[in-house]
Amino acid sequence: MAKKATSQHLTRGTMKLRLHQFLSKTGVFSSKAEVKQAIWDGDISVNGSVVKNMTFQFNVNTKQVTYKGKVLELHDEEVHFLLHKPLGCICSRLNSHERSLGKESVYEVFREHVEPTTFERLVTVGRLDENTTGFLLVTTDGKIVHRITSPEHTVRKTYEVHTTHDIT
Where are the beta strands (DSSP E) in 25-114? Predict the structure, then answer.
């Protein structure tokens, strides 16, 4: 079900990356805009110091990067799932209000089946309404998310709709 993609060249020797490149490869952010915003907002620290320069270069093997206090790491493996979204599930992580209403999230399907670090990195590619079913791509690969959802890329999407009543 999952596809493995390795990036061993990032974990050997004295590999240097620009901050925005590193953040994009963590799988935490689903777009370049999110990466830029996190940097500009001062949410990114390298070895405890806030860095607001997107092109700041550092050795990924000797520096620790945090986002809002949480340590970020490069992962050698990306996972991709094609899920048939059940009726009644939402395509976002639940907030406390949604939990209190008894809502269900598509992410819960994966909680017991993937490592906690992978679970935290999962992102849906687009979304389907709560009252619909259909195929939904769920991945840890921010590049794929951006490539499919960004308006700057033209990805054709087709939807088939069935209604309970005639459309007039």
Answer: 44-46, 49-50, 57-59, 65-67, 70-72, 80-85, 89-90, 104-105
